[in-house]
Amino acid sequence: MSDETIALTRRTDLRPANERLVWEIVATATHDSDDTGDVTLTQAINGTIKKVILTVPNFTNSITGQVVLKDNNSRTIFDSGEQAKNATYVFNIDEPVIGTLSIVVGVSGVAGGSGGSIVVELRGV
């Protein structure tokens, strides 16, 4: 059964040290034990993505997690590649985005056990 889900938390704050508007988007993609599909979250954005943090849980099965970011025209602007389970990966990028951003999160196979959640954090200005 394919019942993957993805949820969004967005926080924007002003940091007086550099007087720039700094934002963070957190997307949590939950995959049950038998899910294999990608989940996509679209978000309106006007800024520059500076950091992508991908956390892949310790799935029961030996599978990988991946995040792909796509712009308004469905062009891939970032691809983490397949990353091993039970780790956090930090990618420093400098990608301006205006309009709609698609956050696509996927796994390479069934998670097994009780599944798990891949967390993607985007930070930017």
Key descriptive features of the protein:
Jelly Rolls, 8-stranded antiparallel beta sheet, 125 residues, mainly beta
In summary, what is this structure?
With 125 residues, this protein is an all-beta fold. The protein has strands at 5-15, 20-31, 39-56, 64-70, 76-79, 83-84, 87-107, 116-124.
Parts with pLDDT < 50 across at least 5 consecutive residues: none
Number of helices: 0
The topology string of helices and strands comes to: EEEEEEEE
- By CATH, the topology is Jelly Rolls
Shape: elongated
- The chain-level structural class is mainly beta
The proportion of residues forming helix, as a percent range, comes to: under 10%
Largest sheet: 8 strands, antiparallel
Average predicted local confidence, pLDDT: 88
Q: Provide the number of structural domains.
A: 1
Beta strand count: 8
**Radius of gyration (Å):** 15 Å
Q: Into which percentage range does the β-strand content fall?
A: over 45%
If you had to describe this structure to a student in words, what would you say it looks like?
The chain has 125 residues and is an all-beta fold. It has one domain: Sandwich (Jelly Rolls). The protein is built from no helices and 8 strands. Strands 1, 2, 3, 4, 5, 6, 7 and 8 form an 8-stranded antiparallel sheet that branches.
